[in-house]
Each structure stands twice: as structure tokens, then as C-alpha cells.
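Please review this one:
***
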Amino acid sequence: LGLFFVSGFAALLYQVIWQRLLVFFSGADVHSATVVVAAFMAGLGCGSFAGGHLADRVNRVTSLALFAVAELAVAVFGFFSSTLFYDVLYMRLGHLQGGTASTALVLFVALLWPTLFMGASLPLLSRGLTHDVDGAASTIGMLYALNTAGAALGAFGATWVLLPQLGLEGSLGVAASLNLLCATAAVPLALAGRGRQVSL
């Protein structure tokens, strides 16, 4: 449960930071900001759908392992995201920017990798922590509540603490390190679950 709180914190750190980085490419008006948020949320939705589909087809131990993989994938992207969004998307491809539709498509593709894995993390972790159908609702509800609380704290911390103190690069490093922490901590959980399965 603590891991998913931290994961939510990191996710909103990314959203706040990437919103500022993508301003260079998409623009700073309300329409551009809406496009960035919409692309972010669309990726989360696709990831949640894919993660739920996958979670239904694997056991609890595999689901925990896949959660670790998802967190690791987000961490890797996070470490290199400023290079992609600024050096590549803005500096090299900024002159190719078209209308709102084409900008939205580019942003969706650019954000698809991390948001897909972010969205997949809830169904994967829910499957990993759910022992039976009767306890599914309470487990998923608790995960969602803690993730949302972490996200709220992440948005606050990014805006008022991390960005003023560490800047964009430093804040991205914090977010990626948190995802790496979640991935690392999920591995022994999966291994412990595998050990229990073997002993049974």
C-alpha cells in the first residue's frame, strides 16, 4: 500500500514537470495545457485497460512482478524525459508543429510509454494483493485512495517545494528515483509470494 502511495506521488510530480517541459513544444495557452493533460490521461486510460486485461490472465506473483517492471519502465523514461521533451521534441522537431490535432497526436505518442505503464500499475498491483473476490473491493479501494492521496501530495510538493529547490532536472531525478524504489521494493514481495506458492 505504501508503494502505491509513493507511485502516485511520483506520477503527479511527472505531470507537473512534464507540463512545464512540453510548454516549449505545445505552447503556454489554456488550449495547449488542456491538450497535454488530455494526452496524459488518455495514456493512463489505455494503460489501465491493458493492465486489467493482463492482470486477469496471470497469477498474483506474476502480477506483482509485472508491477515492478511497470515501475522500472516509468523510472527509465523519467530519467531521460527532459532530453526527449526538450532536446528532441522542441529543439529538433518544434519547427514541424502543426495544428491542434497533430500536436495532440504527437503529445499522446510522446507520453504513451510512461502513462501506459502508470495506468497499468493499479490493476496489476490490485491483482497481486487480492486473495479472493470478497476482498477485492476493499483492496482496490484502499489502493486507489492511497494513490490519489500520494498524487495530491506530489502535485503540491512539485509546485511548492521540489521545483523551486531542485529545478526541472533535479525534480525529475526525484520522481524517477521514487519509481525505482517502488520497483525494487516490489521484487521481494513477488519472491515472497512465489515462495509461499512453492511451499503450498
About this structure: The mean pLDDT is 89. The radius of gyration is 18 Å. Residues 81 and 145 are 28 Å apart (CA to CA).
